[in-house]
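Let us work through a complete example step by step.
Step 1: write down the sequence.
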Amino acid sequence: MKELGYGNFDIKVGDGTLGWAEHAPYDGIVVTAASPGIPEGLLSQLAEGGRLVIPVGGSFGQALTLIEKSEGAFKTTEVCACVFVPLIGKDGWAV
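Step 2: predict the structure and record it as tokens.
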């Protein structure tokens, strides 16, 4: 990435369902793989006023879901139907 001229970024390789607690809280989290549920680790890392976008559902179809944190509570809105590759990890699909 640096060879391409991109800067001001960090990369972590690991279980995406766990997030990256060392840099939390986040104003926005975008998950680009389908999860059977909303990982608690990602919710716990969301800042007040923050938003999480994640495809949630079964193996062959999900709902693109928006979670907004306001006053310590979470509001969940299903945006549209979608199909993503599976999210693997502790709170995702089994390998």
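Step 3: interpret the result. The mean pLDDT is 95.
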